[in-house]
Amino acid sequence: MTATRVLVLNSGSSSVKYQLLDMRDSARLAVGLVERIGEQTSRLKHTPAGGETRERTGPIADHDAALKAVAEELAADGLGLDSPELAAIGHRVVHGGKTFTEPTVIDDAVLAEIERLIPVAPLHNPANLTGIRTARALRPDLPQVAVFDTAFHTTMPESAARYAIDVETADAHRIRRYGFHGTSHAYVSRATAKLLGKAPEEVNVIVLHLGNGASATAVEKGKCVDTSMGLTPLEGLVMGTRSGDLDPAVIFHLMRVGGMSADEIDTLLNKKSGLIGLCGDNDMREIRRRVDEGDERAQLAFDIYIHRLKKYIGAYYAVLGRVDAVAFTAGVGENAAPVRAAAVAGLEELGLAVDPERNAVRGDEPRLISPEGARVKVAVVPTDEEMEIATQTYALVKESGN
Question: Which of 15, 137, 268, 332 has the fewest C-beta atoms under 10 angstroms from its C-beta?
Answer without folding.
Answer: 137
